[in-house]
Design a protein that fits this description.
Length: 156
């Protein structure tokens, strides 16, 4: 199934209206090389169906993307022999999402490649962790169950 939103770059790629360098695809997903690669082999995996982000993607479609990410990682390991791999996703502009069609980055890594995708955060205090845990647990209370199960609690 190919569905899309007019003006979405990834929908254009999925539909074949825009060029891409596809490395794998199946009936649910397309995997293609990123035109701004963080490293050689940097691949994007997108669902054929247009969904905005992690809060909008169904568990089924998310699973289909995850299965393709796994296939892509194996292919990149064989073809490029990296020392490691990063799998990265951004949902929302605050997290760095710049194309609003759900996608996952698969980035091969080599020792001393100079790419730094890590963050260095100070250790949280036990009180801060407990406060966050309480807020999360409150969201799983019966009156919140529907919001949690559908992940529609986030306004975008």
């Amino acid at each position: 199934m190919v569905t899309g939103t007019s003006g979405c770059v990834f929908c254009g790629i999925v539909a074949g209206r825009l060029p891409s360098r596809r490395i794998l695809e199946d009936e649910h997903t397309v995997a293609f090389l990123d035109i701004r690669p963080a490293a050689p082999g940097h691949t994007l995996v997108v669902p054929r169906e247009h969904v905005r982000d992690l809060w909008d993607v169904s568990a089924t479609v998310h699973g289909q993307v995850a299965a393709m990410v796994h296939r892509v990682a194996g292919l990149l390991a064989t073809a490029l022999t990296p020392d490691g791999i990063n799998v990265k996703h951004n949902s929302g502009s605050a997290a760095g999402q710049d194309v609003f069609h759900f996608h996952t980055h698969v980035v091969p890594r080599w020792q001393h490649d100079g790419l730094d995708l890590t963050w260095r955060s100070p250790r949280a205090s036990p009180d801060r962790l407990d406060d966050v845990l309480k807020r999360i647990r409150r969201a799983t209370e019966p009156d919140q169950a529907l919001r949690v199960s559908t992940m529609n609690a986030h306004p975008h």
